[in-house]
Design a protein that fits this description.
This protein is mostly beta strands and 456 residues long. 5% of the residues lie in helices and 44% in strands. It has four helices and 31 strands. The strands form six sheets. A six-stranded mixed β-sheet has the order 11-10-13-18-15-16, with no helix packed on it. Strands 22-21-24-29-26-27 form a six-stranded mixed β-sheet, with no helix packed on it. The termini are far apart. Bound molecules: copper (II) ion. Copper (II) ion binds next to loops.
């Protein structure tokens, strides 16, 4: 992979993202639009040309949608691209017909056409929306944004910042996106990695902060394949939610915070740096820590640190599944480069344009991986028999990881599975519909790692 040369003096200031506030209901008012369109964005450092991207509403990332818990979110999706598209509302326990999965829950919206998304947001937390038609290409081209559902009573913080982490694979000469979105190397290995990493559409996002200021940081991994390993410097605090769902109590932030594609974490941090800077750093490929987000500190929000934050209010329906009644399922993950799949099977798989299988099948197929009765508790064991990590995402329902000691982890919608290991999740199949179950390394999803379950 070619490196993207950054010039030291190139520093971009400020954030371009605009916050839109959605209104509930509104009988005779014109629909609020969300328009997929070609746009230009200054992703690369100054001195490089702007990059042509596919965007929602012309901004990169798409507009931050911020709504109150429990309201209906209504957006008329307008497709001004030259290709079909659709919008998935990631992590929302949503009406199935609004889930945005082309070929499963709706037809892709053709160029020039619209689709009215209209659904209730039952859970407060940090979610995101992104294209779910040829998502490997469309998300990489820029079709993603944050969806924030606010608690009725927000926690006591000075500021609430959304940090959408992403990477882009750019031609170092032209700063345009590398247009080969189906490179066999990406499909069969770790996925499509960018050569420029950034936040909120900037390669070097720097925010301002005051000493002892309390920030809620909502981190979203919107990258196609990159697993972010992060640490904080000059900031200390707690993690309070994972994949949108509040933790039972604020927890210490791990020394190294791992955020797989599509995962989110909410942090409440205090600016504790004695110097002029604080930062979120990420572990680079060279095992060096690099700045992901900088905080330029000036002034003082208070003289001393505050008490720990209160627990976030729970979302409805967070009861753990009844494990004594749970139906056991197993999904073996196989294929890819350097895996253990036989040569014959791999060759047959590649002839169908795939590199991976879930439970022996490549791609969605006509029949679901499992048919579940509504309300049925399930335990599902992912067996990662490949040489790569996979971020397995279930649509429509959150699950808990069933740990080896028998305890249940926090609610999540995406679990990172490790090569050679198995990970068991458990959930109650309480949301009727056809729900995608796939790897969120989007090249893997495109090359076979897409399955679905039916709840009826
Ligand atoms: Cu994968």
């Amino acid at each position: 992979m070619r490196n993207f040369q950054l010039t030291r003096r190139a520093v971009l200031a400020g954030m371009g993202a605009s916050a839109l506030t959605a209104r509930a209901g509104g009988a005779a008012t014109a629909p609020t639009l969300l328009t997929a369109q070609v746009a230009k964005a200054q992703i690369a450092p100054e001195g490089y040309p702007q990059t042509e991207v596919w965007s929602y509403d012309g901004t990169l990332p798409g507009p931050e949608l911020r709504v109150a818990q429990g309201v209906r979110l209504q957006r008329r999706f307008v497709n001004k691209l030259a290709v079909p598209s659709s919008v998935h509302w990631h992590g929302i326990r949503i009406d199935n017909a609004m889930d945005g999965v082309a070929g499963l829950t709706q037809d892709a919206v053709p160029p020039g056409q619209t689709f009215d998304y209209d659904f209730r947001v039952p859970d407060a937390g940090t979610y995101w929306y992104h294209a779910h038609t040829k998502s490997m290409e469309q998300v990489a081209r820029g079709l993603s944004g944050a969806l924030i559902v606010e608690e009725p009573e927000a926690p006591d913080v000075d500021r609430d910042e959304v940090l959408l982490l992403d990477d882009w694979l750019l031609d170092p000469d032209t700063a345009q996106l590398e247009p080969d979105f189906t490179h066999p190397m990406d499909l069969s290995h770790g996925g499509r990695f960018g050569n420029l990493v950034g936040t909120n559409g900037h390669y070097a996002l720097t925010l301002t902060a005051k000493r002892h200021e309390r920030l809620r940081l909502r981190l979203i991994n919107a990258a196609n394949a990159r697993i972010f390993v992060l640490r904080l410097t000059g900031l200390s605090g707690w993690q309070v939610a994972l994949d949108g769902m509040p933790l039972p109590a604020p927890e210490a932030i791990p020394e190294e915070l791992v955020l797989a594609p599509a995962q989110r974490v909410d942090l409440i941090v205090d600016v504790t740096s004695d110097g002029a800077e604080a930062a979120i750093e990420r572990l680079g490929n060279d095992q060096q820590w690099q700045r992901q987000v900088g905080f330029a500190i000036s002034g003082e929000a208070s003289r001393t640190r505050r008490d720990p934050p209160a627990v976030l209010p729970p979302n409805p329906n967070m009861d753990p599944p009844d494990l004594t009644q749970a139906r056991p399922l197993e999904m073996k993950i196989e294929g890819g480069a350097m895996g253990r799949m036989s040569r014959n099977r791999m060759q047959a798989l590649m002839q169908s344009g795939n590199f991976w299988t879930l439970a022996g099948q490549a791609g969605m197929g006509d029949t679901p991986f499992a048919k579940l009765s509504q309300g049925e508790p399930v335990r599902l064991r992912f067996v990662n028999d490949t040489a790569f990590p996979h971020a397995m995402h279930l649509h429509g329902m959150h699950f808990r990881e069933l740990r080896e000691d028998g305890s249940l982890g926090p609610m999540r919608d995406t679990v990172l599975t490790i090569p050679g290991r198995s990970h068991e999740i458990a959930f109650t199949a309480d949301n009727p519909g056809k729900w995608l179950l796939h790897c969120h390394m989007l090249a893997h999803a495109a090359a076979g790692m897409t399955s679905w379950i039916k709840v009826a």
